């Protein structure tokens, strides 16, 4: 059998195929489809990377941090003056500095408050004559081992109107939201893979129907199922590699364009588009993964079809 396969395989000189697969109709469409699927895959992977960067950026900024607000209103509803608010803030700072788990405690001054609200209220603000609350930014040495309830009770007992924000609720909501979006990206990648495999399988079955006579002739000449499947497998690998490489390149250009537009718009809420080494390796591996998927799908499809052929 090996001798017969060698004769069949070398009888075509430098040609890679005993079947004229490169001249089949629909080759260009299959390449285009795989390119589009690869483009969508690049965008889905980039979306997952961006969500990870956003989560890391926001959580790292709030890790081991709490905010204490001293409102400019007393428990009796009376508006407090700036000096009174400052006195209450100094009392809170004394409590915080005497707490071993507190690493730093800093009361924001007027310029820092202005910078904090500038994105929403615009520049050129003047707070003169306006009753303002006091904000104290607190950094904990280790939030997990800090008795937050005891710390809150100490602050509230000294300053009843004080409000303590641990950012836990907001942070948990953010994590749930980003995890949901990353799950959607993963599902999209799975759908893209299934769609690509289905398209390749359909193309292979169509080509086998077109070349049914040639396949039967190869069988009569002694070619094995593995030999015939390698014809389709190699062709599917090359076509998928070409299509996926084109789609991946288009996807990278799209990401660069999006990053440039985002930079021009000054979208500060989004992290700067940057591909790390792991990100680049993941995207660079996409054409080879698509080609391997196409080759495996082709092999399985051909073997199943050959079992049904006389």
Structure description:
- The chain is an alpha+beta fold.
- It folds into two domains: 2-60 and 171-308, no CATH class; 72-161, no CATH class.
- The protein has ten helices and four strands, in the order H-H-E-H-E-H-E-H-E-H-H-H-H-H.
- It has helices spanning 2-10, 27-62, 82-97, 110-121, 148-158, 168-210, 212-220, 225-265, 277-284, 286-308, and strands at residues 65-70, 102-107, 134-140, 163-165.
- Helix 2 (27-62) runs antiparallel to helix 6 (168-210), helix 6 (168-210) packs across helix 10 (286-308) and helix 8 packs antiparallel against helix 10 (286-308).
- The radius of gyration is 32 Å and the shape is elongated.
- It starts with a helix and ends with a helix.
List the helices and strands and how they pair.
Layout: H1 2-10, H2 27-62, E1 65-70, H3 82-97, E2 102-107, H4 110-121, E3 134-140, H5 148-158, E4 163-165, H6 168-210, H7 212-220, H8 225-265, H9 277-284, H10 286-308
Antiparallel strand pairs: 1-3, 1-4, 2-3
Which descriptors would you attach to this protein?
four-stranded antiparallel β-sheet; disordered N terminus; 10 helices; 67% helix; 4 strands; single chain
Short description:
The chain is α+β, with helices and mostly antiparallel strands. The chain is built from ten helices and four strands, in the order ααβαβαβαβααααα.
Distance between the termini: 19 Å
**Strand-pairing-aware structural class:** alpha+beta
> What share of residues are in beta strands?
5-15%
Q: How are the strands ordered across the major sheet?
A: 2-3-1-4
């Amino acid at each position: 059998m090996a001798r017969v396969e060698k004769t069949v395989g070398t009888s075509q000189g430098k040609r890679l195929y005993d079947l004229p697969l490169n001249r089949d109709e629909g080759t260009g469409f299959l390449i285009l489809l795989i390119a589009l699927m690869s483009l969508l895959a690049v965008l889905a992977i980039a979306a997952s990377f961006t969500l990870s960067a956003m989560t890391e950026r926001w959580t790292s900024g709030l890790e081991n941090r709490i905010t204490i607000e001293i409102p400019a209103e007393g428990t009796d509803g009376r508006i407090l003056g700036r000096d009174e608010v400052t006195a209450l803030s100094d009392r809170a700072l004394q409590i915080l500095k005497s707490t071993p788990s507190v690493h730093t405690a800093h009361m924001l001054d007027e310029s820092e408050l202005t910078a904090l609200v500038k994105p929403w209220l615009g520049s050129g603000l003047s707070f003169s004559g306006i009753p303002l609350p006091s904000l104290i930014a607190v950094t904990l040495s280790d939030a997990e081992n800090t008795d937050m309830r005891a710390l809150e009770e100490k602050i509230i007992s000294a300053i009843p109107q004080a409000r303590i924000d641990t950012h836990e609720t907001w942070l948990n909501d953010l994590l749930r939201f980003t995890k949901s979006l990353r799950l959607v990206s993963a599902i999209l990648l799975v759908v893209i893979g299934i769609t690509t495999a289905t398209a390749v399988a359909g193309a292979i079955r169509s080509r086998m129907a077109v070349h049914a006579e040639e396949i039967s002739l190869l069988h009569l000449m002694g070619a094995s199922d593995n030999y015939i499947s390698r014809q389709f497998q190699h062709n599917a690998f090359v076509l998928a590699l070409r299509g996926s490489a084109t789609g991946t390149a288009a996807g990278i250009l799209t990401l660069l364009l999006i990053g440039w537009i985002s930079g021009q718009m000054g979208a500060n809420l989004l992290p700067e588009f940057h591909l790390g080494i792991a990100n680049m390796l993941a995207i660079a591996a996409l054409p080879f993964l698509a080609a391997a998927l196409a080759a495996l799908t082709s092999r399985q499809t051909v073997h199943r079809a050959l079992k049904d052929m006389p």
